[in-house]
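ok trying this again, last paste got cut off
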Amino acid sequence: MDALLIHLRDFNFITVVLRLLLAFLSGTVIGYGRARKRRSAGLRTFMLTSIGAALTVLLATYEYEMLCGPWASVAEQVGMKFDASRYSAQVISGIGFLAAGTIISIGHNQVSGLSTASGLFASVCMGIAAGAGFYECVIVVLVILVVVLDILWPLEPAFKRRLRNITMFVEFNALEDLNEIADKIRSRKGRIYDIEIERTRRDRNNYPSAILVVKMSREKPSHSGMLSSIAELDCVRTIHELIS
């Protein structure tokens, strides 16, 4: 087994193809999961970033092999110095611009796309590892990413709903109604940590709204119970929980 891995880490045509295929497979697996969830960065984006990252490492390896072989005399004459790590460093820096494009603000202090941006960064790092011939690392990280992005994804909202902290968006008739909403929260022994007043426009009328950060009591920690009790107020027009 060790002898096979040593052979696979040699730089030749077969290993180059194998590394590119491994990068392609890694990007495909992660990208498929993101595309199925209709994220901004989908299947082809993850494929291309992973393959591109692997290609930069292969180019660095190729340049090193040439400078130590056919180009050695020329490199010695001009005093050329080579740093293979600069390729990977530039890729990691450059992916930040691409990943930033997937992060958007969806309103009410909520941000979407952070997981997709992180997935792109991880995909690039997998491509770099594949291009370097670090096969074991790529396979292990691929399994971990599938678990994090696909298997644990539905568990995160459920976990957040079990916490005592809740962030709500509430739209009501008039600013004076905010006192009634606060009284309802306190009647359930909740504590308001922060209130941010907004104003939305609907049906040519301006309705005040607010984002409330509340910590619920241990006796009544139900998120749905808190939302339902506030929704029963006549002054409340809409209410929903904000989960980022």
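PB: full thing came through this time. The chain is about 60% helix and 20% strand.
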